[in-house]
Amino acid sequence: MLHILLLLLPLLLSISNASVNDFCVADLNGPDGPSGYPCKPPTKVTTHDFVYAGLAASGNTTNIINAAVTPAFVAQFPGLNGLGLSAARLDIASGGVIPLHTHPGASELLIVTQGRVTAGFITSDNSVYVKTLSKGELFILPQGLLHFQLGYGKRKAVAYAVFSSSSPGLQILDFALFASNFSSSLITQTTFLDPEQVKKLKSVLGGSG
């Protein structure tokens, strides 16, 4: 038995030392493709590549939505590259809202750590699921579906989102319609909104057309 193990040992060692990529810290100077960024040379990787403190500070909620989203995606945290996860911090002041939006590339797990947050999503068959969450509660938002978060009550809310992709993508419905150069006449025809309302929203959000 011992001689068999001795014969197998070199093979086992060669397999264990085969080319295995434990990680691929992003080289942000390279192109970002469907499979992510190219890898930083292992000799240049340090512990700092696996640590990110960007979510420790509160986001600035002094804006039109009274809320802030601070991302920790691969562009901010290169160590996430290729690992299939990322995160973000949501700061929502009283009356604040994260408008209807989608993440085309990821599902989202929302975790409330302060205050209360009303979150919800709309399915492809137009069913609506909404829940007001308290500290410690989690809510899942399936990939690609329109969803939102609202501050509930008079207290500031803080939540963290964990995504199933290092680059989940983001498209905010209101901004896509009214902060872009999407023609006002086409918006009116495709949404049934009043032309004056479309004009007003474009002026507020900075769109043209």
From TrEMBL:
GO cellular component term of the entry, any: apoplast
Residues where oxalate binds: 103, 108
InterPro entries: Cupin_1 (IPR006045), Germin (IPR001929), Germin_Mn-BS (IPR019780), RmlC-like_jellyroll (IPR014710), RmlC_Cupin_sf (IPR011051)
Keyword Disulfide bond: yes
PROSITE patterns: GERMIN (PS00725)
Positions that bind Mn(2+): 101, 103, 108, 147
Disulphide linkage map: 24-39
Coiled-coil regions listed: none
Top-level taxon of the source organism: Eukaryota
Pfam families found in the cross-reference section: Cupin_1
Localisation per UniProt entry: Secreted, Extracellular space, Apoplast
Keywords on record: Apoplast, Disulfide bond, Glycoprotein, Manganese, Metal-binding, Receptor, Secreted, Signal
Chain segments annotated as transmembrane: none
CDD domains referenced in this protein's UniProt entry, alphabetically: cupin_OxOx
GO molecular function: manganese ion binding
Entry keyword Manganese: yes
Domain Cupin type-1: 53-199
Signal peptide: 1-18
Main location: secreted
Family in the record: Belongs to the germin family.
PANTHER family reported in the protein's UniProt record: GERMIN-LIKE PROTEIN SUBFAMILY 3 MEMBER 3
Protein's UniProt name: Germin-like protein
Native source organism of the sequence: Lupinus angustifolius
